[in-house]
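User: structure tokens for this one?
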Amino acid sequence: MSRIPDIVKPHLRTFDGGRCRHLTAYLPSITLCMSVAAVLLIVPAAAHISRDYGFFTRDPTQIGNIPRYAGYLSSLGVMAWTVGAAVSLFTSAVLVSRSRDDADPRFFLFFGGFTALLGWDDLFLIHENFILGEKSLFLVYGVIALTGVVLFRGVFRNEATGFAQAAAAAFLLSLSVDAGQRLIERQIGDIRILIEDGAKFIGAVCWAIFLCKIGAASISRCTHE
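Assistant:
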């Protein structure tokens, strides 16, 4: 596994194992409190836009009165992001008290959080309503991803890296089709949407597989140390 570059180690030392373990102990309570807050937030939100509570709690297909299978690929994509994020954050919590390699838990924490952010974006279409424009937000995501690759480049030498490479290729294809959507749609019609969204979905699945494989390998290795 990779080591953290010397230039960034001083900034990471404050996050020692003891402090991380102390924080981890409070995560269940924090999660529960955030869940309760999410439910209570519906009350002022409903009053603010003059909607009933069901507008916020029911499935969008029920609210929109459309077939339940509408947008099913998008829903599966969000599930893939969620699996990748959950596995990564869980692995980070396990490794923080067991691993001897400082890079291990930080890799999973970094990319677990980033994957959760991408899932949040995919679910609520944040990029399409970003104040500085969609391209600006995609640029930020690209910088975050490249930063993670540089900091944890040793991890990407893992045998599971082929899935990460496939994910990157799929995302680039999806972004390329989106960037040239008008020209491409003139040539191939509505199938352009299938290629764009299908590539993004395959990318999310490949990325989740990558995180699951190296997460399982890291937990297995640290339990046998």
